[in-house]
Amino acid sequence: MSNPAEKPEVVQLPAEAPVAVPVNTRRAAAQRVREARDRLTSTSGTRPAFDTELLRQYAQTRMSASYVVMLLVVATGIIFGLWMQPVTAAAWTVGMLCIHAAIIRNCARFLAEQPSLAATRKWRTRFVLLDLLYGLCWTAILIHPAGLDVVSNTMMMFLMLLVIAVSSMLAASLPIAAFAATAPVTAAITLNFVLGGTFDNYALALLALAAEGYFVLLAQRLHSTTLATLEARAEKDALIGELEQAKAISDEARHRAESANVAKSRFLAQMSHELRTPLNAILGFSEVMKSEIFGAHAVPVYKEYSADIHNSGVHLLNLINEILDLSRIEAGRYELNEEAVSLVHVVADCHHLLKLRATSRGITIHEVFEQGMPRIWGDERASRQIVLNLLSNSIKFTPQGGDIWLKVGWTASGGQYLSVKDTGSGIAEDEIPIVLASFGQGSNSIKSAEQGAGLGLPIAKSLIDMHGGTFTLKSKLRIGTEVIVTFPPERVMSALAPMAEEAPPLQPEPAITAPADDKRRARNKPIMSAGTGL
Asked: For residue 167, which of 132, 147, 405, 498 sits 20 to 30 Å off, Cα-Cα?
């Protein structure tokens, strides 16, 4: 017997070792999922989410376009310096560049800070105020034209549209900032045109208002597009996080399953030894008592009891062997000992082994074998076990006086098949997956007096799958059951032509041993190879 203190080490240690790392991975993935979902909630009035992301895009856009804005400011100062006093235009240019520098500096500071809800609100307000100051500064230069002629109006209109367009594009991630930067310019230009009092000025005023509305809508549309992009990215991040979390859970379950499988294999190996040792003694002594080797029993019924003990021990031994075979197959440790096997001979031998059992139940077994079938390349022990499992099942569930047909033949694709068909009680269609599962039993087998462990069909299916074949079970209640297993064509060994051996070299003939006629006959006689037996 094994030491009981070693059992916890065998069963528990493999299940605990691989679990620590997947748990940490799963926690990290869950944290990322929560962060991605938190981004789908917001406190701003624009839309619930992505306040910080929108502000970061606003800051990055302003910083990337800083040189373009500086060029626009300098060009505007030069143009207006030609119409007004150069000192005034230069002062405006310097002031405008200072405001622009303040905006860029604040954008850089915002990008360098860690995002938080309170900081986001503070920076949002600061950016809106800076853009308002930026728009007022543009207003200061645009409402001071050199005259009221057509050229001046056209110049003001062109600059207004350019300023509104640039400001709307730069502040599209923050629509309220875009409105703060463009509304003062539009209002000042519109008021300046209205005060002109002419029809042309009124038309230009309406055009300025229409342009403001268009660019405000455009900024809103760009903001919606940016927001949709951020939402899609957040959903993608959440999905990736959930996939990582599911993968972590799957890895953890796989580690547990592998550990459980190792523990199961060790347990079965140990228990098989623990069970076989006393079982051998039971089988040996019951065989001696049943055969009355040391003399007849004083009470005749003891002989029957000894036979029952021996039969039960054989049944238990078969059950242990089946469980171990199934365990090795599921663990991938069952190796095929492949050789040339005659499927017809294997089926005939199994029929001979179980013929007495079938005859005692009044069951007739019919053989339908095709003649001249070549051998197949497979495991003879596994093939024999497949046939024995299928045939014993048919005998078990076929009523007295029934029939069983054993068929071996060719498949349409060039392989070989084995069919075991009986006239038993059959299996319900919804119970077929159950009987093909390990330890699965149908309702008829449960009601049967001769019950099994439910391992015969799963073992046979697993063994034929290892050969690359197919396993098909057809059954109808109160009609019968047919099981067909096929071996693929690549396992059929085709008949090969014998190899032609080269003739041995001719030996020089002695000049004095044969007359001329004998030499002539020797030359005309065909030379036979050594392997022909002639």
From this structure: 147
